[in-house]
């Protein structure tokens, strides 16, 4: 393992995930690795604020969700610490009411975000499904 | 035990214990807040505020949809050329002027957009020819 390699696991739903320690959050963020998502990060508005991302008020961008529903997101820009490098990233930011957020997170105990191929473009991603292990390393 | 005793005890906590305490207190405080809100909800004290917040949220969503509709219209007008020349890249359109920038990633297209139009220009973006998918 190299100093900034990120180890993770595969959950019961066969989703690869890593935990990312970042300022703004006491506990690590649970980041699901979505290789079908070609953005860098997908967050909700509250997470974006806690990460110090500024959400662009007059922005809109469509995202096709797993339910096949198309949803309008906003974009937010900020600095994100990734594998030891601080980089400026444009994230997709979900807009919802507090009630919607609570309903979405009702059974979750950790803050969840999505990381996509834009963030992984200079990394090696290894997923060992039988061993339920994930490794993200710099190339 | 007085509040001062508790403050002194907290001051003496090592960093890791302090972090644990902070996490516990945040959860505790949130629960207390939720319970107070729940009582006020049951008493109907927050109906007007809730309606106001929902109305504000609906207006925001409507604004987002309006901006998206303008962006989609602008994109439809140029999409044939974009899909021929830049399939798979990202476009970000200034919805006021219809001018646009193209780049390989959302971060790069946003950077180019800010450089050209500033941070506050209204924008709509998409991946050219294929939707942006997310499994949520």
Describe this structure in words.
The complex is a heterodimer of chains A (139) and B (136). With 139 residues, chain A is mainly beta. Chain A has three helices and eleven strands. The model of chain A has no long low-confidence stretch (mean pLDDT 90). In chain B, 65% of the residues lie in helices and 12% in strands. Chain B has helices spanning 3-11, 15-42, 47-85, 106-117; strands spanning 90-94, 100-103, 123-127, 133-134. Chain B has a three-stranded antiparallel beta sheet, with helices on both faces. The two termini of chain B are 48 Å apart. The model of chain B has no long low-confidence stretch (mean pLDDT 90). The A-B interface holds A 26-27, 32, 34, 36-40, 42, 56-66, 70, 72, 74-75, 77, 88-90, 92, 94-95, 97, 114, 116, 118, 121 and B 19, 22-23, 26, 53-54, 57, 60-61, 64-65, 67-68, 71-72, 95, 105-107, 109-111, 114, 119-127, 131-136. Strand 6 of chain A pairs parallel with strand 4 of chain B, so a sheet runs across the interface.
Structural class of chain B: mainly alpha
Task: Tell me the Rg of chain B in angstroms.
Answer: 25 Å
The coarse silhouette of chain A is: globular
Order of helices and strands of chain B: HHHEEHEE
Q: Which regions of chain A are unreliable across 5 or more consecutive residues at pLDDT < 50? A: none
Bulk shape of chain B: elongated
- Spatially, the strands of the biggest sheet of chain B line up as 2-1-3
Uncertain residue ranges of chain B = none
Mean pLDDT level of chain A: 90
Tell me the helix content of chain B: 55-70%
């Amino acid at each position: 393992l190299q100093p900034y390699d990120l180890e993770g696991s595969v959950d019961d739903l066969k989703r690869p995930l890593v935990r990312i320690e970042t300022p703004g959050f006491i506990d690590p963020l649970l980041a699901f690795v979505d290789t079908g998502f070609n953005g860098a990060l997908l967050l909700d508005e509250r997470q974006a604020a806690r990460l110090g991302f500024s959400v662009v008020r007059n922005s809109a961008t469509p995202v096709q969700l797993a339910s096949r529903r198309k949803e309008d997101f906003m974009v937010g820009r900020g600095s994100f610490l990734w594998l030891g490098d601080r980089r400026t990233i444009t994230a997709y930011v979900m807009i919802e009411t507090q009630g919607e957020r609570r309903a979405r997170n009702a059974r979750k105990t950790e803050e969840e975000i999505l990381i996509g191929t834009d963030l992984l473009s200079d990394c090696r991603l290894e997923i060992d499904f039988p061993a339920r292990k994930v490794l993200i390393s710099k190339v | 035990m007085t509040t001062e005793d508790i403050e002194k005890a907290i001051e003496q906590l090592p960093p890791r214990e302090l972090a644990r305490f902070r996490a516990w207190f945040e959860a505790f405080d949130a629960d207390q807040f939720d319970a107070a809100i729940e009582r006020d909800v049951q008493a109907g004290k927050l109906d007007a505020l809730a309606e106001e917040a929902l109305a504000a949220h609906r207006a925001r969503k409507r604004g987002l949809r309006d901006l998206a509709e303008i962006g989609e219209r602008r994109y439809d007008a140029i999409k044939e050329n974009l899909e021929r020349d830049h399939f798979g890249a990202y476009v970000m359109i200034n919805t006021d002027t219809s001018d646009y920038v193209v780049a390989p990633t959302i971060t790069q297209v946003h950077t180019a957009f800010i450089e050209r139009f500033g941070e506050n220009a209204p924008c709509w973006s998409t991946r050219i020819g294929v939707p942006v998918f997310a499994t949520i």
